[in-house]
Amino acid sequence: MDGPNPNIKHPIPMHTRVGFLKPLVTEPNIEIGDFTYYDDPDGPDKFAQKCVLHHYPFIGDKLIIGKFCAIAEGARFIMNGANHAMSGFSTYPFNIFGHGWEKGFDPATWSKEVRGDTVVGSDVWIGMEAVILPGVEIGHGAIIAAKSVVTHDVPPYAIVAGNAAKVVKMRFDDRTIRRLLASAWWHWPVDKIGRNLDAIRGANISLLEAAA
């Protein structure tokens, strides 16, 4: 059970709305793990253009997404280029329009709003039209409900929903989560994953640990 080739852009024949993102996304400031896919009726090929917004290379922030993530139609990652300086009375970006308005602008007032990389762990499910704000870290195994607006970090194996998104429940108890994170099955060789799918998609942590 070697599984599909993670370098195939459209891994499901006759169903081109689903695509593995690693071979589709070539932007150097986006890193995506094997088998992570995006599902869109218009096709996944424009994921970086449609779903990763205000992502400018000169800022230096990255979008990092792990392996085996499922990203639904219309999910959006808002990057640091969307931020405005907030230290003064006005947040209007006068400087970008030039014609003298750029004079006196202090870049530090904007750069201090940069919140770092946006990081999504492995085995994360991001629902339809969810919005992830800059600098957020989403833990392994988390579920982001449809139309959620994620403004803060999400713990591993949490289910979050709402605007602003809050933890609705944890998928498993604390001890099980620690054991799942220690197993880190998403880093196993692909052939090993294939041999142990029942343990991975089951709910017996001892069985998963025995496979590790």
From TrEMBL:
Q: Name one GO molecular function term.
A: acyltransferase activity
**Superkingdom as given in the UniProt entry:** Bacteria
Q: Which UniProt keywords apply?
A: Acyltransferase, Antibiotic resistance, Repeat, Transferase
Q: Name one GO biological process term.
A: response to antibiotic
Q: Which PANTHER family match?
A: ACETYLTRANSFERASE (PTHR43300), ACETYLTRANSFERASE RV3034C-RELATED (PTHR43300:SF11)
Q: Could you say which protein family the record assigns here?
A: Belongs to the transferase hexapeptide repeat family.
Protein's recorded name? Chloramphenicol acetyltransferase
